[in-house]
Amino acid sequence: MKVFFLSTFIGLISLAFLGCEVSIGPRVPGVVIAPAPPPPPEVVISTRPSLVFLSDYGIYVAPDVHYHIFFDGSFWFYYSDNHWYRGKNYNGPWVEVERNVPPGLMRTPPGQLKKMAVKMKKHGNSGEGKNKKKDRRRFQ
After folding, report:
1. pLDDT value, residue 25
2. Can you tell me the distance from the alpha carbon of 15 to that of 12, in angstroms, rounded to the nearest whole number?
3. Which phi and psi (to 5°) does residue 132 adopt?
4. How far apart are the two ends of the chain, measured CA to CA in Å?
5. Which of 69, 77, 103, 110 is disulfide-compatible with 62, CB 3.0–4.6 A?
């Protein structure tokens, strides 16, 4: 009998060290402990980035910065490692958001939006169209 308990104990300890979940006692149904979200990323941009408006998506894109930075007219959005972050400034501080991301950002991968903005800027089109003067006043 002692051999049985000893071998069972050693087996449970071995499973625990292998990363398996070992639970002794009652489990609370419906309770899941999830890992903490990643910390907000640090974004360092020395000056306000220039923006290109993608009218089909209703979003401004910052094509000249190293980050995937977007502006919807009220908030700045940053995409990093499959997470969306929102901030009141282009340098943050950033808060992770799962909802409330503008639909234009959810329809197309961020890298593709940035490529479109780079292409528009290269051809001299800011994307602001007829409301260029109005748009500049709005975001200064």
Report:
1. 55
2. 5
3. -55, -50
4. 79
5. 69
The HSE-up count of residue 98 (CA atoms within 13 Å, CB side) is 2
For residue 136, give the H/E element and its range: helix 132-138
CB atoms within 10 A of CB 118: 14
Q: What DSSP designation does 91 have?
A: T
Report residue 133's pLDDT band, with 50, 70 and 90 as the boundaries. Answer: very low
Give dist(CA 67, CA 78) in Å, integer. Answer: 7
**What residue segments make up the domains of the chain, in order of their start?**
52-138
Residues 95 and 40: beta-carbon distance below 8 Å: yes
Q: Tell me which of 3 and 56 has the higher pLDDT.
A: 56
With H, G, I as helix, E, B as strand and everything else as coil, classify residue 86: strand
